[in-house]
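Internal tracking record. Fields below are filled automatically when a chain is submitted to the structure queue. Please do not edit lines marked as system-generated. If the sequence contains nonstandard residues, flag them in the REMARKS field before resubmitting.
Queue: standard
Priority: normal
Entity type: single polypeptide chain
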Amino acid sequence: VSGSGLDTKLRRRSDLRWDLKLTEDRVRLSFHNKTVEFPLHVADEVRYVAASDGEPISPSSIPGTLDQPGRLVLIRTLLREGFLTLH
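SYSTEM-GENERATED OUTPUT FOLLOWS
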């Protein structure tokens, strides 16, 4: 996980059922009986990754205002939690 970089190809697990909820200050991504929370300001980036539908993505391809280190934190978290896999 720590070796993943901006051009690392990842994909959402194809058999994954997920749900995205926004609260006043958080984004909650629920899957496999767990919930991962992020700050609300990364909602667009989390939504993009979640909606990728198994297509390969990389941190550098994620649209939005999140900076590069933030994109790495996002994908590494989702990789560690099992939402993403290496492509």
